[in-house]
């Protein structure tokens, strides 16, 4: 018997049956309805398939802040001490730490959850937290999480099995928020990157076939609430139209990233303001990009408005900072560079007259399948730059090779580079971006400026209105005086979700997809 729920009535697919059959059916249905009213409701559970735009080249926990890795393992396999609520207004929430407080000397004390085990069966305690933090700060690896602790000295000290202190110089008022990006691994995990992550999360890695799929399976011994998704299989397809079609046909259940053109079904397709900023990182160290007139010309040559509603979704915002509004310190007085090709040409002529080699070929390095329409967007930017007199090459690379251009140590003997990238800051504070993007010692900084270093140092240690004021000053200085980047768009994301699932994307969906937040109808 098949039943359909519609407007509060239950109908059946047995027209024209005899009266006795109808009566028996009525009794059976009444019994089912009465039984459901008297019995507790049980949520459905089962496996799902998720199709992503790019494959994970690593599953190393300390690299989970990188979107192609974080979408798979962050808070699924590997957990953090704290977690920012992106679905409501709870702010910073407990995860592996139950509570925390700042001590009189400015240090922070964290009280850890009891009864937690790793997926290999070992118990979780404060020694694992200290080891995890020391591991990301080690020079034996290239952990991406380390970049968020630049410009400060942090010392983790075990008090007892359930208590750990973090001493920070200078004092960091948002250290608990910073620790929401530090994934916890068992003490003794190799300092070098691991292939099979061991974590405290609700899932464990059960299969990874490079080029094909990754499979996470729910743990029976997880400390928290049992999730409805019992198994998640991750597939990888670069074409957003293919990803959308796979969900439509049932080959997959979620595609966190599809293009606006494919988002045509209100029942399955959702738009969301994400926290990603698309930009071109300028390498100031190489001529002609070391001349501020050339950097201004790059910005004036691009018609940003023309992309909105065409290659970039409606609702996307033109960027004036590496962080999106309403991040703390957002500066509304900073204005987007206008589209002024004649002004760009004039600046190039002035620089050339002063001996700057403006005709040197510049290469844009872009990441394949980084976001929908990335190929078309970069080709259009290349064309616009060429129209004002730049000589521009365009090169697409996979994520691992892209990181070699994006992060230090930069390659010796390189020519002038513009590295196309998408930066995520969903935490609400510029400290998650500014040091590693712009400080002289920042791992992705393309220049060195003492005023920038000073503003970052003072803003990171400040609180309240002073903190916001300093970040605002830095945002204006980077955009108007340094001309640090070619800032492009704060993006809008689109997802397709099967109607059998209870899930809506948030601003964090592009970088983290918690399976425990997905319900099965």
Structure write-up:
The chain is 25% helix and 24% strand. The chain is α+β, with helices and mostly antiparallel strands and 521 residues long. Strands 13, 14, 15, 16, 17, 18 and 19 form a 7-stranded mixed β-sheet that branches. Strands 3-12-11-10 form a 4-stranded mixed β-sheet. Strands 6-7-9-8 form a 4-stranded antiparallel β-sheet, covered by helices on one side. A hairpin with a 2-residue loop joins strand 8 (153-160) and strand 9. Helix 6 runs antiparallel to helix 7 (341-353) and helix 11 (450-461) packs antiparallel against helix 12. It starts with a strand and ends with a strand.
Task: Give me a quick take on this structure.
The chain is of the alpha+beta class and 521 residues long.
Main features:
521 residues; alpha+beta; 7-stranded mixed beta sheet; 12 helices; 24% strand; globular
Distinct helical segment count: 12
Structural class: alpha+beta
Look at the structure and give the mean pLDDT.
Answer: 91
Helix content: 25-40%
The backbone outline, from C-alpha atoms, is: globular
Question: Mind sketching the topology for me?
Answer:
Layout: E1 3-6, E2 9-12, H1 19-38, E3 46-52, H2 67-73, E4 82-84, E5 92-94, E6 97-102, E7 108-112, H3 126-136, E8 153-160, E9 163-169, H4 175-178, E10 203-209, E11 213-218, E12 229-236, H5 240-249, E13 254-258, E14 269-282, H6 292-300, E15 317-318, H7 341-353, E16 362-367, H8 374-387, E17 392-397, H9 399-406, E18 417-424, H10 434-438, H11 450-461, H12 464-482, E19 485-497, E20 501-502, E21 519-520
Parallel strand pairs: 3-12, 16-17, 16-18
Antiparallel strand pairs: 1-2, 4-5, 6-7, 7-9, 8-9, 10-11, 11-12, 13-19, 14-18, 14-19, 15-19, 20-21
Helix pairs in contact: 6-7, 11-12
């Amino acid at each position: 018997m098949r039943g359909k729920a519609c407007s509060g009535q239950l109908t059946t697919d047995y027209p024209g049956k005899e009266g006795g059959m109808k009566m028996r059916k009525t009794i059976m249905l009444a019994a089912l309805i009465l039984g459901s009213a008297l019995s507790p409701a049980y949520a459905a559970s089962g496996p799902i398939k998720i199709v992503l735009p790019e494959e994970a080249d690593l599953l190393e926990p300390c690299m989970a802040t990188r979107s192609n890795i974080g979408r798979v393992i962050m808070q699924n396999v590997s957990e953090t001490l704290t977690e920012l609520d992106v679905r409501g207004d709870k702010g910073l929430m407990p995860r592996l730490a139950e509570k925390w407080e700042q001590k009189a000397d400015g240090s922070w004390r964290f009280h850890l959850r009891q009864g937690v085990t790793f997926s290999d069966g070992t118990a979780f305690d404060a020694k694992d937290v200290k080891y995890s933090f020391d591991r990301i700060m080690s020079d034996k690896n290239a952990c991406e999480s380390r970049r968020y602790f630049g410009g400060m000295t942090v010392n983790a000290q075990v008090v007892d099995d359930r208590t750990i202190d973090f001493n920070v110089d200078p004092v960091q008022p948002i250290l608990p928020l910073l620790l929401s990006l530090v994934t916890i691994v068992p003490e003794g995990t190799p300092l070098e990157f691991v292939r099979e992550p061991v974590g405290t999360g609700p899932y464990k890695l059960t299969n990874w076939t490079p080029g094909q799929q990754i499979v996470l399976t729910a743990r029976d011994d997880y400390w928290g609430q049992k999730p409805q998704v019992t198994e998640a299989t991750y597939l990888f397809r670069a074409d957003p139209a293919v990803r959308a079609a796979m969900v439509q046909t049932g080959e997959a259940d979620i595609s966190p990233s599809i293009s606006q053109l494919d988002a045509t079904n209100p029942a399955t397709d959702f738009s969301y303001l994400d926290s990603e900023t698309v930009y071109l990182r300028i390498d100031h160290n190489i001529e002609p990009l070391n001349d501020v007139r050339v950097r201004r010309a790059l910005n004036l040559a691009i018609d940003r408005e023309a992309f909105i509603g065409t290659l970039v979704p409606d609702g996307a915002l033109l960027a004036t900072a590496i962080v999106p509004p309403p991040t703390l310190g957002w500066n509304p007085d900073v204005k987007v560079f206008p589209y002024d090709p004649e002004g760009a040409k004039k600046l190039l002529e002035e620089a050339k007259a002063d001996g700057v080699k403006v005709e040197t070929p510049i290469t844009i390095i872009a990441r394949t399948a980084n976001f929908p329409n990335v190929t078309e967007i970069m080709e259009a930017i290349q064309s616009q730059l060429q129209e004002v007199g730049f000589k521009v090459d365009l090169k697409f690379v996979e994520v691992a090779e892209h990181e070699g251009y994006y992060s230090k140590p930069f390659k010796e003997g390189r020519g002038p580079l513009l590295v196309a990238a998408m930066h995520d800051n969903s935490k609400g504070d510029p400290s998650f971006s500014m040091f590693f993007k712009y400080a002289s010692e920042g791992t992705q900084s393309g220049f060195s400026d003492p005023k920038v270093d000073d503003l970052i140092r003072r803003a990171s240690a400040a609180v309240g209105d002073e903190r916001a004021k300093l970040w605002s000053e830095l945002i204006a200085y980077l955009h108007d005086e340094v001309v640090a980047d070619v800032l492009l768009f704060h993006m809008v994301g689109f997802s397709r979700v099967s109607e059998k699932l209870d899930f809506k994307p948030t601003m964090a969906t592009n970088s983290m997809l918690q399976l425990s937040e997905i319900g099965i109808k």
